[in-house]
Design goal:
- This protein is mostly helical.
- The chain has one domain.
- Helices cover about 65% and strands about 5% of the residues.
- It contains ten helices and three strands; from the N terminus they run H-E-E-H-H-H-H-H-H-E-H-H-H.
- A hairpin with a 2-residue loop joins strand 1 and strand 2.
- The longest helix is centred in the first third of the chain and has 22 residues.
- It is globular.
- It starts with a helix and ends with a helix.
- Keywords: Membrane, Transmembrane, Transmembrane helix.
Length: about 200
Amino acid sequence: MASASKKWARDVYFVASRLYFLLILFQVPLFRFPCRIGTCTTPIEVSLSLLYANGIIPGGLVKALLYPGAVVKAIYKNNTIPSYDKLLKIYKFTNMKQSPVTHDLQNLEVIVGSYLSVAGAFFGLMKSGRFSLIGVLLITWGLEKQVLFRNSKSVVIYPTMLIALLSAFFSIRADVTKLIRFSKPKASLRNEQKQS
């Protein structure tokens, strides 16, 4: 029989991993960062713009991943739902700027963090992992580095990044189980150990 702390951890993990997935898939703005399509506000935009520009993934897959977020943005702004066929043009994927390799290398933390964030969102639906948390931490460090060391005014971190960070942390089942166990009083821990 599963202990109460494991059940709590499973519930917290389930909610946190789903919340993180929705934040990524529905493209809730987490930051503002200059990228190949102009300005990116989500990890999925950063990842897809680089993968599409380098010819690694086809336009059909890019549209399939962008469409849920485009629909949510249209509903939120009370606009008409965009056409699936014109999605690459709406997101400016058709006229991307060629970025020098040095620009990508200077922003490596944000790029790698975006890849890990997107991968972690999808893998988190199946199994607990640390991709999401590492991705969010890398993005945050990369953006902070831009602001602190380069005085970049075009880089902004939105408060929603804190929600992404917390949901990424709580989507790691093993760490949540340990956290719940350490937060319990010692008497309840002894009773739980006797029952198992």
